[in-house]
């Protein structure tokens, strides 16, 4: 259908109206999540370019309005639903919007940079949607990846971060007015050592399947899935990636690199050459050293009272706080 035909599902319409009425009576906004990536991921026939703000897909014509991207269309579908149910002036906040960088063929750093850069530029231009021209508060999801998040929707669920888990930048973003992302400073790592499959071990060893399954049950192996950054590894490197993921998750404990004598510790980085693609190369990570807590300096207070329009939101239940990375674009 078209955005102008938007309405709440009949089976939950009464519930939705009651929720929105409660919000309206208390001068609270309705917060929604919009994920063009999920629209693309769910439908093999979805026009890929329509997911981006600078795409070349044919516009969708809805009366006198021309929609050139799915975010505008999704947002205005909600606006139409609110209008039909008597809430034409209901304020809306986009609580989550972003693009993952791994775990799916369309989830890569190039697409994530293209989408989020286009989103930031829209915000800097104070551009809204056809039915709501005034821009709304928008939260980019997310600061960093979540290596324990459920992957039931897909392996990409653990890779929405703009930053890696250690605070390094995945891709550059021009935030406008000469501002850009900056990496975390003073991050300390565990020793440069990795757990890999022993050269003496055999791929036919009967203990190997259960060992790999155990490692990936307790650590994040989603970068090995189809179309992901490490999906082109050979069999032994696949095993090594799984072993190392578990080894690093266990803070490089010596007992975490046993796996029935199938594994060994090496000081040679097993990450494969990026073969010219430095942005989406497979990386055998090293764990951050979290043994000592350091006090973070309080960020300086701002004298500006202007409203915020774009933010990078943190993750659900994340264990690593990167409060210094909350980037704010102001009117």
What distinguishing features does this structure have?
5-stranded mixed β-sheet, TIM Barrel, 11 strands, two-stranded antiparallel ribbon, alpha/beta, 6 helices, elongated, 2 domains, 23% helix, 331 residues
In helices, the fraction of residues equals 10-25%
Shape: elongated
Mean pLDDT: 89
Radius of gyration: 23 Å
Strand order of the largest sheet: 1-4-5-10-11
Q: Which architecture of the largest domain would the CATH scheme give at its second level?
A: Alpha-Beta Barrel
* CA distance, first residue to last residue: 34 Å
Number of domains: 2
Order of helical and strand elements: HEHEEHEHEEEEHHEEE
Uncertain residue ranges:
302-308, 316-331
Largest sheet: 5 strands, mixed
Number of E-type strands: 11
Structural class: alpha/beta
According to CATH, what is the class of the largest domain? Answer: Alpha Beta
CATH superfamily of the largest domain: Glycosidases
Number of helices: 6
Which fold name fills CATH's third level, the topology of the largest domain? TIM Barrel
Q: Note the beta-strand portion.
A: 5-15%
Account of the protein in words:
With 331 residues, the protein is α/β, with parallel strands linked by helices. 23% of the residues lie in helices and 12% in strands. The protein folds into 2 domains: 3-186 and 299-330, TIM Barrel (Alpha-Beta Barrel); 194-266, no CATH class. It has 6 helices and 11 strands. A hairpin with a 2-residue loop joins strand 6 (174-176) and strand 7 (179-180). The longest helix has 16 residues, at 109-124. The two termini are 34 Å apart. Mean pLDDT is 89; it is low at 302-308 and 316-331.
């Amino acid at each position: 259908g078209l955005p102008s035909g938007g309405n709440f599902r009949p089976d939950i319409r009464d519930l939705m109206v009651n929720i929105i009425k409660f919000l309206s009576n208390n001068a609270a906004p309705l917060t929604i999540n919009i994920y063009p990536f999920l629209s693309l991921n769910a439908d093999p026939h979805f026009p890929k370019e329509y997911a981006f703000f600078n795409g070349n897909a044919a516009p969708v014509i809805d009366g006198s309005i021309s929609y050139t991207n799915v975010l505008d269309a999704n947002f205005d579908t909600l606006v139409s639903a609110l209008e039909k149910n008597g809430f034409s002036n209901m304020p809306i906040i986009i609580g989550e919007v972003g693009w993952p960088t791994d775990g799916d063929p369309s989830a890569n750093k190039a697409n994530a940079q293209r989408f989020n850069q286009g989103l930031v530029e829209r915000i800097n231009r104070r551009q809204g949607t056809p039915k709501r021209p005034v821009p709304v508060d928008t939260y980019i999801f997310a600061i960093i990846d979540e290596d324990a998040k459920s992957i039931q929707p897909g392996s990409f669920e653990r890779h929405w971060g703009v930053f890696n888990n250690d605070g390094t930048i995945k891709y550059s973003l021009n935030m406008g007015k000469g501002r850009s992302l900056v990496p975390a400073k003073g991050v300390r790592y565990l020793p440069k050592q990795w757990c890999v499959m022993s050269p003496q071990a055999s791929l036919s060893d009967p203990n190997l399947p259960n060992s790999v399954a155990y490692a990936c049950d307790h650590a994040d192996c989603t970068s090995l899935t189809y179309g992901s950054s490490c999906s082109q590894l050979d069999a032994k490197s696949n095993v090594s990636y799984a072993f190392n993921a578990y080894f690093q998750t266990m803070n490089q404990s010596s007992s975490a690199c046993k796996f029935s004598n199938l594994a060994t510790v090496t000081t040679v980085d097993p990450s494969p050459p990026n073969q010219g693609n430095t942005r989406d190369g497979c990386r055998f990570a090293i764990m951050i050293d979290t043994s000592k807590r350091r006090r973070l300096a309080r960020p300086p207070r701002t004298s500006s009272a202007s409203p915020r329009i774009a933010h990078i939101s943190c993750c659900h239940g994340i264990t690593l706080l990167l409060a210094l990375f909350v980037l704010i674009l102001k009117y």
